[in-house]
Design brief:
The protein is an alpha/beta fold. The protein contains 15 helices and five strands. The longest helix is centred in the C-terminal third of the chain and has 40 residues, at 299-338. It starts with 8 loop residues before the first helix and ends with a helix.
């Protein structure tokens, strides 16, 4: 007795081709993540890292010039007249360390700017002090909140908000594909509100990453998340099942690596350092740092970066609306020209062929998009 019908060879081959075709996406993700993360993080080295030597006499000038020459481009060493000027530079992120020579040498850093940068600066000047036979005292002029001792909590908050945002794009683009674009855009804005609130709850009450300024943090988190969601919903019209890969390139591979959350641009290769000046993740991380730890210094520029990405999202939504309108019109005209709706037109009476063509085109679009829902959701992976 037969155990049951087996799959036809043709259908098995087609299914296998379908599966193998979908391996392209995870393999591209693997290659992209490797190139981005290892390229940005595997060998951090300082270049033109601004530090100060405090003093105005010949000895301070000689020390600064000696450090500059020996660093071979790693450091950019300047002298400042006094401790107050050095602290001001640190609190405006004009420098990342200030060395006060003498019998009891002291190093000033700003841990909130970047813990890894402060560590690099401390290593350099520990060796300088040791060469003079003196222990080094380190003073942090801008310490982070108690809940974020490494100063990297803001970066991991960025990761959480980013994943919540681009994963929501897959849901809206897949499960909501049959909805009008204006409804999908409204869902994107609503989702960004929810994601940003979750981020603020994590940052404040749950983990204590910041101890004040939660209102401003929420506003930047919403603007950041809304930009990603609007861009994603707009891109979905054009990229379809490749949207997730596109968003991972934009908002994971290039975004996390250039944000400055782990290593500031002064410790990264030139490509990622250049992205830091205008990418939205850097706008969020540096904006939160400025708002929470540096009295709002240069905050306007960081918010402007986030706002421009939001505007780019609105522009993509507009382009997507035009493209979808043209596709619907083309589908209606094609269906009418081929006579595919002749039968439904006769049965529909007063509704006519145009109404039936719209219905047929809509049904085909719904069926096609529905088939992609599970694929898109499965391809939406975390980091």
């Amino acid at each position: 007795m037969s155990a049951g019908p087996s799959a036809a060879p043709g259908s098995t081959a087609a299914a296998l081709r379908h599966v193998l075709g979908h391996f392209v996406t995870p393999l591209l993700m693997c290659i992209g993540m490797g190139l981005a993360y290892l390229g940005a993080f595997h060998a951090p080295e300082p270049h033109d890292l601004r530090v100060d030597v405090v003093g105005s006499g010949p000895s301070a000038q000689v020390l600064a010039q000696t450090l500059q020459d020996k660093s071979d481009g790693a450091l950019s060493v300047r002298t400042v007249p006094d401790r107050a000027a050095a602290v001001d530079h640190l609190k405006t992120q004009a420098s990342y360390g200030a060395y006060l020579p003498g019998k009891h040498p002291e190093l000033l850093v700003a841990g909130a700017s970047s813990d890894t940068t402060a560590t690099v600066v401390e290593k350099v000047f520990t060796q300088v002090a040791a060469g003079q036979g003196d222990p080094l005292e380190v003073t942090d002029t801008a310490p982070t909140a108690d809940g974020d001792p490494t100063g990297q909590g803001i970066f991991f908050l960025l990761v959480a908000v980013s994943i919540g945002s681009y994963a929501s794009v897959a849901v809206i683009g897949g499960a909501g594909a049959v909805l009008a674009l204006r409804i999908r855009a409204a869902l994107a804005v609503a989702a960004s509100l929810v994601v940003s609130v979750i981020g603020v709850v994590f940052a404040g009450p749950v983990f204590g990453l910041v101890d004040h300024g939660l209102g401003g943090l929420w506003a930047m988190a919403w603007l950041y998340s809304a930009g990603i969601l609007l861009i994603g919903v707009g891109l979905h019209t054009f990229l379809k099942r490749w949207t997730t890969l596109g968003l991972m390139v934009l908002f994971v591979m290039l975004n996390f690596t250039s944000s400055g959350g782990i290593f500031r641009p002064e410790l990264q290769p030139g490509f990622f350092a250049s992205l830091h000046s205008f990418w939205n993740g850097a706008g969020f991380v540096e904006g939160v740092r400025s708002h929470v730890y540096f009295g709002g210094h240069a905050l306007g520029g960081h918010v402007l970066v986030l706002a421009l990405w939001f505007v780019a999202g609105l522009a993509l939504i507009g382009l997507a609306g035009l493209a979808e309108s043209r596709r619907r019109k083309a589908a209606v005209e094609t269906a009418a020209d081929t006579g595919a709706v002749a039968g439904p037109a006769e049965a529909g009476g007063a509704h006519g062929p145009k109404h039936a063509a719209r219905a047929g085109a809509g049904a085909r679009t719904e069926a096609g998009d529905t088939e992609e829902i599970e694929e898109e959701l499965e391809e939406t992976v975390g980091v």
